[in-house]
Prior knowledge:
The protein has nine helices and twelve strands. By secondary structure, it is an alpha/beta fold. It has two domains: 5-142, Rossmann fold, CATH 3.40.50.620; 154-275, HUPs (Rossmann fold, 3-Layer(aba) Sandwich). The strands form two sheets. It has a ten-stranded mixed sheet, sandwiched between helices. Strands 10-11 form a two-stranded antiparallel ribbon.
Amino acid sequence: MSLKSIVVHLDENSAVEQRIAVAVQIARRFRARLRGIYSTRKTRAEVDMAELSPSEVARRISEREAREHGQSLLARTAAAASLGEVDVDVLGTNAIDDALAVMRCADLSILSQPDLENDSGRFDRRLLEAALLGAGSPLLVLPRVQSAFEVGHNIVIAWDGGREAARAMRDALPMLASAARTTLLSIASPQRLREDVERSQARALTLLAAHGVSAKATRMDCTIDPGELLLSQVSDVGADLLVMGAYGHARVRETILGGMTRTMIEKMTVPVFMSH
Length: 276
């Protein structure tokens, strides 16, 4: 099992440089092929430029320049890492559906935490929520706070024994196999017996060991909000990656995420590897 196809989201935000750096870092580690998907702040129909106002013309020129910058940066960074040619898909009028179609044929997709104070924040949130529940493949979500991330050397797995956590752990096996340190962390609720948590952790450790992953199991009693406790423990062990299941379901017109998933999206401090 390995990561051989990685998709990275490109846009006009400054965080794109961080996304590209992490995507190339991971692609180089696994000798994976990179593909970019580019989205603009707003989908616009094709019209004659002469019919547009000067401000709209300026906006479109700015978007084109940002797209060319992102594509060029991705190509240059990939070439410097000897990754070969990189393809870029420009998302069309059905941007979310187009993005999901590409992500469904990738081993990993890399997005950023939405910034709702930014013009593109609402689209970024819609894309992330749709991808979490509809891409059918794992996501790596990077915090919007700019930092030089070295991802996947010290990993925490959020483990509750459920389907989503199991899916995330299995999807993350390539990253886990190359990590220097792995912690299997369970946050126990008052209703769950300690023996049940320990048995569940033992089963997970057995699977990890079968794949050559040596992990340490840790159990925390839930005395505060579980999302806040998880973030605190990730910080305490100095983790550079959190692996967790994404909980939620899609309705006809909206996406409903679970509380822990939403907390991580809103307050993440390290990259989060998520599967549903």
